[in-house]
Specification:
Length: 69
Amino acid sequence: MQLSARDRLTGTLTSINRGEAIANASLDVGGQRIVSSTTVEAVDELGLKQGGTATAIIKASDVMIATDL
């Protein structure tokens, strides 16, 4: 697969919380947690399972950074 997105983070799926239409998949990448919201249908089509490996692909025109002042 070829993508224009260059930010790819591979890790282990630690949980998948399903709602009626939307699911939140949590990915552990080197001790950091990344959560993706997607459709339940996509979770099923991709075969996402807790303990499996997945890649977060990030393409954003804006990235915000905050600090505690």
